[in-house]
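Work Package 4 report. The design task specified in the project plan requires that, given a folded chain encoded as structure tokens, an amino acid be chosen for each position. We show below one input record used in the internal validation round.
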């Protein structure tokens, strides 16, 4: 299932959502420029950039160190949110942010939404680190922060409908599906894949690279909690 558009219009211009999308796209274009550079070491330079500014769990826990430990491991939690592993990675994250972020921003307000987004990303990185604290694989992407947005949206607008592209073999349809089903299906997939990954790591297969499923789960759960903490309280009438 690929969500394309929800049925809730924005009441105000989602300046933070748009700004985050622009920053992520610009960062990806810079990464792309490193990868496609004319020099013989372009690919190596691009990989070094990811290692330097991605979040590496063992650096956060002190189980390993970079040669100069720059930037500080805590800083990489934020820089990693704006790096991506490819066009589909950044495109998927920005699509979800565009569909669901504007309405959460409407509810929280611009400043609170930015704080909500960044704290969701922090919780996502810490969640993945807690599961695999000795991993030396860099974590990059806005997925954890966007997962927080999905968690917040699910609580706020469970009865909204989402125009979704559904494909199953030769079956291809555009279907309006309740947000609770779209996002419920999404988080179930994250849990199942997370369990498979955790089982593989527990079986002694070492670092299991690829998707940081527990970052998605951590961000999603953090988004639900943060929504209740940051949502403006209605003012009592005197």
């Amino acid at each position: 299932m690929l969500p394309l558009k929800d049925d809730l219009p924005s009441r105000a211009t989602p300046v933070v959502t748009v700004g985050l999308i622009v920053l992520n796209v610009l960062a990806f274009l810079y990464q792309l420029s490193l990868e496609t550079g004319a020099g013989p070491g372009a690919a190596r330079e691009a990989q070094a950039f990811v290692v330097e500014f991605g979040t590496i769990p063992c650096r956060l826990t002190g189980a390993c160190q970079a040669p100069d430990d720059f930037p500080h491991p805590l800083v990489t939690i934020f820089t990693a949110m704006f790096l991506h592993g490819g066009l589909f990675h950044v495109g998927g994250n920005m699509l979800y942010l565009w569909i669901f972020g504007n309405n959460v921003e409407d509810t929280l307000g611009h400043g609170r939404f930015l704080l909500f987004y960044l704290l969701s990303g922090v919780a996502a990185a810490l969640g993945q680190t807690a599961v695999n604290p000795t991993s030396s694989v860099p974590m990059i992407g806005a997925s954890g922060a966007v997962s927080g947005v999905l968690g917040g949206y699910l609580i706020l607008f469970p009865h909204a409908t989402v125009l979704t592209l559904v494909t199953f073999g030769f079956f291809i349809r555009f279907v309006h599906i309740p947000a609770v089903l779209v996002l419920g299906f999404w988080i179930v997939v994250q849990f199942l894949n997370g369990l498979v990954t955790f089982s593989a790591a527990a079986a002694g297969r070492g670092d299991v690279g690829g998707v940081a499923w527990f970052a998605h789960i951590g961000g999603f759960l953090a988004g639900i909690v943060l929504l209740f903490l940051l949502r403006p309280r209605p003012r009592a009438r005197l």
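The longest helix spans residues 179-202. Validation will be extended to a larger panel in the next phase.
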